[in-house]
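To close the chapter, one final illustration. This time we ask the reader to focus less on the individual chains and more on the assembly as a whole: which components sit near each other, and how the overall shape emerges from the parts.
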Amino acid sequence: MSKTISEIHEIRAKKQKDLLIRTDPSAVPTKEGGRMHILVCGGTGCTSSNSLKIMEELEILIRTSGMQDDIKIVKTGCFGLCAKGPIVMLYPDHIMYTLVQPEDVNEIFDSHVKNGIPVKRLLAGEQKDGEITNALDSLDFFSRQMRIALRNCGAINPEDIDEYIARDGYLALEKVLTEMEPEDVIDEIKASGLRGRGGGGFPTGVKWNFAAAQQEHEKYVCCNADEGDPGAFMDRSVLEGDPHSVIEAMIIAGYAIGASQGYIYVRAEYPIAVERLDIAIRQAREYGLLGEDILGKGFNFNLELRLGAGAFVCGEETALMTSVEGKRGEPRPRPPFPAVKGLFGKPTILNNVETYANIPVIILGGAQWFSSIGTEKSKGTKVFAIGGKINNTGLVEIPMGTTLREIIFDIGGGIPNGKKFKAAQTGGPSGGCIPASELDTPIDYDSLIALGSMMGSGGLIVMDEDTCMVDLAKFFLEFTVDESCGKCPPCRIGVKRMLEIVTRITEGEGCPEDLELLEILARNIKAGALCGLGQTAPNPVLSTMKYFKDEYLAHVIDKKCPAGVCRSMLKFLIAQDTCKRCGICKKNCPANAISGDKNTPFSIDQDKCIKCGVCMEKCPFKSILKNA
Amino acid sequence: MSSTELNQNATEQYQLLLAAIARHRNDRGALIPILHEAQEIFGYLPLEVQRTISEELNIPLAEIFGVVSFYSQFSIYPKGKYRINVCMGTACYVKGSGDILDKFKERLSIDIGECTEDGRYSLDACRCIGACGLAPVVTVNDEVFGKLNADDVDGIIDRFEKLEDIK
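The assembled structure is written out below.
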């Protein structure tokens, strides 16, 4: 049943009362004192480590104890602290449990739910003097963040539209449809300084303005949810944790540019996101927030989901549109830009998930507020997916201009196992590496470009001293060679040649001229490739050559891999002074390359050795050394 | 399965396919959604299935094959009963997913994209599944195994072998 504006207001007011327990527990009426909300993370990370089983067991316990009227279990989206999942959060106590296993459920239930005594061993973070004041806010991981795009992730049930409405959801849409002309919306977005969060950083309002200016009856609004950068998962988390924010923003965009149809192009690799989007679209339709005559204001807008099928190039805007049209997702030359001639040949705007998630907040909070956050040319916040060799793997949202050091060491908790930070990689296969010397650079779109990397969608992979930068460059080239669509020769042939050269360097067959050759190839590919994939494909090589030239030289001149990663340059040796001649290495060597016995020193026949490293792994005395 | 059972099974699958085509045929850009459903029904996209879609939608078979071969999620070969995917995203890669992939190849004696002779396992290197907090990650059908190292590979296969033995 379609809802009127006042009916939506009633839903909001009613649900807000229910959610007080999470937002402002002190305001909950005392007669409701026994109530409790237990939030369980239902994001991809936590469900992969059994969070749904935890939910089920909690439900059974609560039902069998007859407490189902007072205690509500809520499946939420991602909390962001993925390394510590599964995560369970209890309100009104505001207490977060991490690394919860199904076996722990009984203890949480008996101790905390029934008797109000928190289970200390599962608490997030260190507690001071055994005192639990506010477990969540005491964690650097959360207190240093500023959550705008992720505002509802981990806070609401994404499959319940009422919870989104209670958090001022669809209020921006109401404001736009009742108080603002399309050009006011565009002006507001322009004034906010919001730039595309998917990689390029193009000003969103300017893009909308181009499309709005086209005198065409048929226009389209698209959402790029084909999050292809390996290691980036913020869009997935927004879709899983707060799908309505994207839907609301797309309706607003449709109103602003004069479109009545939208498409969300989402990766098929994200089944949970697809399912929640599907549910959210259905609910929005039921409430009359999608469809004809939205909120009785005479504006029509419809939304359809389209699933990707595993092609990285479809994250490029023209390729994405070609794919929505049901064809091979190959990019096409620009101009004409999509805002003039896009999907089905009509004016189209395409923004990514995180960009859309910012829109309702900007409309409600105002451009002035939004543009007060961030740096001069990069406004607002950015979500980073931090992964790789870092303690707090997960999602963090921070104001633009935060330094890499703050992200990695303060929020991310530093590098595990006492290793040294070597570099951070941003922008995925299109980006580059940032060395330790640049840790204090404030991060925004422009500073990252100046460093030879780029924002990309916000994947941030941390590497320690065990990572070989040449091998990493090879990894990204393999990726782009694999994902090149083959349409333009610079990308199809050029990147392949780069990969061949880098491969030969990692195999100890490189020569100093190879480095020069790589640079020439890279320059030409950047200048000549048709789309963003090819134009940026050389970046990982260029930036690693810029900051880690020594490592390349070690490979080509000394034929050594300083990080000990490139196998063909490795040599395993036995340290005679610590070797106890136990024979374990000899027993485990698959190539029979080790000889020796109690009376003769052990040694490795380098001609036979296949460099598998088993001996080093098995040696109980750490007497096998990897010599680069 | 007897040959009549096989035929019956195939007929049912084709009926499902025709229903899927009917559902989408009026959508703009219907081909990819139909291919997704077809793969769901048949497990892969053999030439006969592509031909049926071609005839029903009046799109040349070559164009359909062009789309199928473009996207890595579409397969023209059957997959194993247990579809093993090793995530090769950056976060998994820097944490050693390459070694895990090698170990699967060695244990199953198959390469990426192949299926064991008994049809039990197929092995693929997949793109980032976004579970970077659990890196390195392997999925078997819909089940996710996280925080692995190469030594865990045997345990995973053994578990599925045991399941098969019970049957």
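Chain A has five domains: 35-139, 161-371, 381-464, 469-558, 570-627. Chain A touches chain B through 52 residues (CB under 8 Å). With these observations in hand, you are ready for the problems at the end of the chapter.
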